[in-house]
Each structure stands twice: as structure tokens, then as C-alpha cells.
Write a structure and sequence with these properties.
This protein is α+β, with helices and mostly antiparallel strands and about 400 residues long. It has three domains: about 170 residues, no CATH class; about 100 residues; about 100 residues, Homeodomain-like (Arc Repressor Mutant, subunit A, Orthogonal Bundle), CATH 1.10.10. A hairpin with a 5-residue loop joins β2 and β3. Helices cover about 60% and strands about 5% of the residues. It has a five-stranded mixed β-sheet. The protein contains 19 helices and five strands. α5 crosses α6. It holds the Pfam family HTH_18. GO terms for molecular function: DNA-binding transcription factor activity; sequence-specific DNA binding. InterPro entries: Homeodomain-like_sf (IPR009057), HTH_AraC (IPR018060), HTH_AraC-typ_CS (IPR018062).
């Protein structure tokens, strides 16, 4: 399964509250202009600047270069030309990330009004606009994410570079000062390191290899570009959201059903936002890696035929209901004999073994988190004979249900 890198990038930049638009030179309609800068230029009577900006992008933008733009309204953007292989109808297409600002909105309004000679009565309207634009006091974290994904999109990070542009209307590619070139080189080097580690992490999660991913993270000392402020909780949260998205995509490549992926991803997103300390997030990162690996181990259907996938999904989603081999075969619309033979061939397990195993796994949660009598736990996972449940539990877990419950409730 090939991941849509642009779609993934859009999800990642959302973690920073920043918008991403995919555009080409035909975007001259009013609605498109509104999306570009949230209506600022139209409000001020400068809509033509956007079309001129498109023309300059078409003329000057080159592949494998990330352009960092600051316009005359002190709004910032990151943009790049999409490689031809990802464009449709032979058009030139571009990604625009932004706008965002990097200083106090009220100070920006004062400077913009003075620089552009705008009427003072526009001050309140401008403040309302700038307060609606994301503020990134330090854009390094976002820059790292965008550079990493641009590397994936180009399929080759060699030659990846940064160019700074003061505005779209007067495209200026003057040579950087030596210190700026050095800073950009260091940033790209840090991104390349993260690029390598992210690849290794995603590969480990795709196969559910918990030992490997822990090994990778031990060497991952510079995953985040160094923050420029002491209070970096928001910065760490942003990176955790990025991890959550990347891990989700890795599990998706392992052919895990989206229902499972969405459930765990949403839960982690809430925990990330609710964290009050950086130490909580450090602990959560290990939990995320472990649970995403377990998700692959328990629910990956890589290499399964569509019929067996349908059968597995039906069993998994109805495991607490009465199930029979006949009802499963009818649900996937094939004969029972063919289903049984194909299921054993593709999974290495019989249908009955798989169903019983899943039912015992489902019961583990109830045993650990509720006080339900064991016969009720068995009934809730579709096993109505307590003695049969006891035999199955001992077979799959190597102990009794009572022993398992006691072990799970022991205090460390």
C-alpha cells in the first residue's frame, strides 16, 4: 500500500495549526484567493498579488528546494514545487503551507499600516485577521517536518535545500550570508538524521518488531530540531502528534483495518493534548510504540486474500456475538469447505482455533478491568459453557482465568 505523502504532510502540519493547500496557476477564482491567505489581500485590495505570485513560482521554483517566504504583510509560508511524477494533467503544481506569523499580532499591525500607508481605521480589522493566523515563535519543528516529507516525496533527499524569499512579487534569490548558509546546512543535516530514524521506526512498526523500535529510539538523540525556548511542552506535543500520524500510516501499510487504527490513534491524540508535563510525553512515546506494534501483531492482514480479510474482519468485529463457521461462510459468500481450507492456508490456523483465540484475548480485558464473575466474562465473549471457557483459557494462556486476574491486580 503506497502512502499519499502529500495527504500525510497535510495531516502533519495540522498538528501546528497551519493550513496546507495544493495549487496551480489556474487558482485565480475568488474562493481560491480566500483560501490562500485567509482573505487578507482581498480585504486590503491586493488580490492581484497572489496571481503574480503564482507566475513567479512557475518561473523560478525548482524541484527539491523548500522556499521559506515572508511577504510584505509579515506572514510566513513554506512552499515547494511538486515533482512532475506526482502532478496531474501535466500541470505545474505547488504546495503552500501557511500563513503563519512569528511575532506579536499587534506589533505586526502597526508595522504593516506604517509600511504600506494603510488607513488607521483598518487597525481593528487587521488585528482580528492576524489573531486568527497561527503564531509560531519558532518554526524549526514545522520546518523539520516539511523537509522530511519533501524528502519522501522526491524519493531522494540528496540535493535537498532551502531558499529564502522576501516576497512573491520581487522574487529574490540573492546568495545567503555565510552564517545563514551554515544554519540551513545544519538544519538539513538534522532533518537527514531524523529521516533515517523515521524510516527505521516505521519499518519496525510495520512488522510489529518492538525490540527493533526500542533499539532505534535509543540512538535517536536528535529527533527534534533544537527548540529556542525553555518551555518546550508545545513543541514536544507537536512532535508527538507527528509521531502518532507516522505510526498510524506505518500500521496502515501493514494492512490493519482502519477501525483499529482510528481507535488507537484518536486515543493517543487526546492523551498528547491532555499531557501537562514533558515527562508524561516521554512515557507516552514508549506506550505508543508498543501499542502500535501490538496492533500489527494482532491485526495485520498483509498477504491475505480479500475473502480471508473479510472473514477475519467479520470475526474480529463480532467476536462477542454467537458465531458459527456456517454463518461466517455465508457472510463472505463462499462455501464453508473452501473458506476453511483457504483460511488455514493463509493464516496457518483453523477457523475454530482463530475464533477461540480471539475470544480468549477479548476476555483478558474484562478479567483485568472488571469484577464480573468468570462465567459472565465467558458469556460476554461468546462462550456460554464455563468449563469449555476454562479449558480454552488454560490452553491459550497457560494458567486459569482466576490466576490471570489475580496476577493483573497485584501491586508492583
Amino acid at each position: 500500500m503506497e502512502i499519499d505523502v502529500i495527504r500525510q504532510l497535510e495531516e502533519l502540519v495540522k498538528a501546528f495549526g497551519v493550513k496546507l493547500i495544493r495549487m496551480d496557476s489556474r487558482m485565480t477564482e475568488e474562493d481560491d484567493l480566500m483560501e490562500f491567505d485567509q482573505g487578507l489581500r482581498r480585504f486590503l485590495g491586493y488580490p492581484y498579488e497572489i496571481e503574480r505570485g503564482f507566475r513567479m513560482m512557475e518561473k523560478h521554483y525548482k524541484e527539491k528546494i523548500l522556499y521559506l517566504v515572508r511577504d510584505s504583510f509579515e506572514e510566513h509560508y513554506m512552499s515547494f514545487r511538486i515533482p512532475e511524477e506526482h502532478c496531474s494533467d501535466g500541470r505545474q503544481e505547488f504546495i503552500q503551507i501557511g500563513p503563519y506569523i512569528m511575532s506579536n499580532p499587534e506589533e505586526i499591525v502597526e508595522r504593516v499600516i506604517e509600511r504600506l500607508g494603510l488607513a488607521p481605521y483598518l487597525s481593528e480589522e487587521l488585528k482580528e485577521h492576524y489573531y486568527s493566523v497561527p503564531i509560531l515563535a519558532d518554526s524549526d519543528a514545522l520546518l523539520g517536518v516539511v523537509l522530511t516529507q519533501l524528502g519522501y516525496l522526491c524519493r531522494d533527499r540528496e540535493g535537498l535545500s532551502i531558499t529564502r524569499v522576501e516576497n512573491y512579487n520581487e522574487f529574490n534569490e540573492k546568495p545567503h550570508k555565510e552564517e545563514q548558509e551554515e544554519e540551513d546546512s545544519l538544519r538539513i543535516a538534522a532533518v537527514e538524521e531524523r529521516y533515517r530514524y523515521e524510516d527505521q521506526m516505521m519499518e519496525a512498526i510495520q512488522i510489529g518488531d518492538m525490540e527493533k523500535i526500542m533499539e532505534v529510539t535509543q540512538g535517536f538523540k536528535h529527533y527534534r530540531l533544537k527548540p529556542r525556548n525553555d518551555d518546550n511542552l508545545r513543541d514536544v506535543k507537536n512532535m508527538m502528534v507527528v509521531w502518532n500520524t507516522l505510526f498510524r500510516k506505518a500500521v496502515q501499510q501493514a494492512e490493519v483495518h482502519p477501525v483499529y487504527i482510528d481507535r488507537i490513534s484518536e486515543a493517543f491524540a487526546k492523551q498528547i493534548e491532555n499531557a501537562a508535563r514533558v515527562t508524561e510525553l516521554a512515557d507516552l512515546s514508549h506506550v505508543m510504540m508498543r501499542k502500535y506494534c501490538l496492533l500489527v501483531r494482532n491485526h495485520s492482514m498483509r498477504g491475505y486474500s480479500s475473502v480471508i480479510r473479510d472473514a477475519v474482519n467479520y470475526i474480529d468485529f463480532h467476536i462477542r456475538e454467537p458465531l458459527s463457521l456456517k454463518s461466517i461462510a455465508e457472510e463472505v459468500n463462499i462455501s464453508l469447505n473452501y473458506l476453511s481450507a483457504q483460511f488455514k492456508k493463509e493464516t496457518g490456523k483453523t477457523l475454530t482455533h482463530y475464533m477461540n483465540e480471539k475470544r480468549i484475548q477479548s476476555s483478558l480485558i474484562l478479567l483485568a478491568t472488571t469484577d464480573l464473575p468468570i462465567h459472565e466474562v465467558a458469556a460476554q465473549v461468546g462462550i456460554y459453557d464455563e468449563n469449555y471457557y476454562a479449558r480454552l483459557f488454560k490452553k491459550f494462556q497457560g494458567q486459569t482465568a482466576k490466576q490471570y486476574r489475580s496476577m493483573m491486580r497485584m501491586k508492583p
